[in-house]
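the two lines:
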Amino acid sequence: MKVRIKFSKYGSVKFIGHLDMMRYFQKAIRRAEIDIAYSEGFSPHQIMSFAAPLSVGHTSKGEYFDIELNSFTSEADLLNRLQSVMVEGIDILQVQLLKEGEQNAMASVKAASYLITFRDETILPTGWQEELMSFYAKPFIPVIKKTKKGEKEMNLKDSIYQLEIRGNSGIYMLLDASSGGNIKPGFVLDSFFDTLNYKLPEFAFTVHRIETCKNIGTEEERKLVPLIWEK
Amino acid sequence: MRKLALKDEILMQVEKPARYIGNEVNAVMKDKATIDVRFAMCFPDVYEIGMSHLGIQIIYDMLNQFEDVWCERVYSPWVDLDKIMRKEKIPLFALESQEPVKDFDFLGITLQYEMCYTNILQILDLSGIPVLSRDRNDADPIVIGGGPCSYNPEPVCDFFDMFYIGEGETRYRELLDLYKENKASGADRKEFLKKAAQVPGIYVPSLYEVTYKEDGTIDERIPLEPNIPSIIEKELVKDVTDTFYPDKPVVPFIKVTQDRVVLEIQRGCIRGCRFCQAGQLYRPVRERSLEMLEDYALKMLKNTGHEEISLSSLSSSDYTQLAPLLDFLIENCRERKINISLPSLRIDAFSLDVMNKVQDVKKSSLTFAPEAGSQRLRNVINKGLTEEVILDGARLAFEGGWSRVKLYFMLGLPTESEEDIRGIAELCNKIAAVYYETVPKEKRTGRVQIVASTSFFIPKPFTPFQWAPQCTKEDFLDKAYQTRSAISDQLNQKSIKYNWHETDASVLEGVMARGDRRLNQVILKAYEKGCMYDAWSEYYKNDIWMETFEECGIDMGFYTTRIRTDEEIFPWDFIDCGVTKEFLLREWHKAKEEETSPNCQMKCSGCGAARFGTGICVRHKTSGIDLAAKAADGSKVERKALSTSLI
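prediction for all of em together
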């Protein structure tokens, strides 16, 4: 049986990269003595699937991974046992037993929401808020996306599902995070400021992932909900 | 929540920011308001190396068990952060509290290899602590050195307020109490150093003066204060079972060199190889009990979540409880899918059987360390490994399915001839031949792979070879070429791969190893000119070192290639490591006569370590072996006693 685990990442652990987070959880599962299933073969490994890698330096309240278990106690027991072996900066938020046939975490991911906050010392062109909203209002935003295979022209608008200004220096974004079309919030910002001929200084903003989502609607009519979702 | 010492912008710029954030599983946090002594424990190399060191984990755990002490960790910032910290004047900080090292009471620095000496200066410099002990005042931490290189502390003695000679488990409580008392009484730093110099095992270099003879060798060491010992005896844990050992070692976020549970099964070694410093320094060999190791293995695996456990000791095959310990580990690790990593075991039927159980034969290679190519030279170095044993082990291994063999040798050992060097190639060839004899054609998966590696021999203090001249750089290179060409002359040369180490750093390491107080100025100057991370070949700046020696008017050959007389006073003679100089000299003479000495299990050679009254020296007395040893050649009855107790 499979369970999905939701966790947060904040404070100093935001400097731990994705591969090291995976190693961290492998060791944590051993410390918590969770009855996880292992792969067959001479060097067996824990059966574990992470939803969407988070970039180094970003914080999050919506990280997920699935594990396969040999035996299951209860969602609450798993949560408590895992939480008791966490370090400061990583909290287990939710545990859910997955239904038979549920897609794994990585394949389920369709979108992610972010809060971008400009640092106090970042100087931005005046009126950037209005400019951003009119940028978002365009039906077609041509950009060149660098992929492993090379460069690709695409319409960025298709990947931005929602965009709002929050407060004085915050931007909320809901972006495509599927394995084929993942868009990073920094890329959206860079594309926007490019249209103003403005180059953002390095470390101009922080990124906080709010949620990682799956689609329970259709391709045409998306209904994005958190990876752990009870209707 | 903790505030990090480095701003996000800096952490985002440097490689592996997780090196600098602390907060790892099992890292110890305390409330500094309830603490009397703040101790920063430093391994002067990059985080991944330092975090892999067992000794620091032991001391960290011990000091943090003391309620009035908070011990934190410090490592060398990597070169990228080093540059930023200098530019932005950010003081070096400890990982746990993220607070400046300068505000601590103690800064402990472990000296694990000579090539870290410039990194000591990096640590002090970045901390804002004056690099010279004499320039420090009451506001600076007490800088204390320890570890194997502190057995010859003289080349770096100006940078330290004191050295702790020997094993750390024994005297820290006493030293810290003395520190608290001194502070409470309002006495100053100088007063504390004087009192500390009377604590067994503590060496305060500023309280001694050294005079030299005309030939540059030491004339005399003079204590500058009354009641200061002229000889410092090493500290040693008598009972290695009932002592400090971390059951909750810190678990790094990032992959480090030693990413596993490390179980130290014993200290010391019975073997007495004449080139080996550790084999002498940690005498007598002391075993931890099987019960303790079983208990700690389970606790440490549970508390860390590591997926691998490794046994640590100088010669694990000599641990008397090895078979039951391995049985226990195999049984308990199989179900939990935990790997057992085996240290260099002697290759025999037993170890091959164990390796078969715990690792994939196809992937792993076997390691032999004959150290020298000929039996003659192996007798000189007292390496009790014969060609017969090596070839038998190889045969067994090939029958068991192994087809990769690694061999370690040293070049430049005392009395080495061209014939000995050819012996390296011939031994490799014979092993390859054994493979083709043993494994029938249809079972072979390609060629046997034999990898021969040579390092250059560097004489170390407290070994019988401390009197031996080191080879010149040219000799070293010549020997490596001879080895290479001898290997290419062999019938099975296509199955043999040969690697050798660089020479430049070996010369500097040799200077530091047997150096004296006059080297302090050279190290400081080289550091000021940009030398750092000398143990990393990509950062080792040989030209600067050579230039600095010249500027300081110091001849490197004095420390390396010079022939030393039996009577010479060495810079480290004031340290008593348990093994006497008389014993070492006896061994040096025997080496030159190509005579071997028995190991401690076979017969006591009277090295001097028996005075600690523990470990194998005591086991002997109860088993009757001591009687046999005392009776020189022994009567028949005593010989019988000896042979039975060996079984």
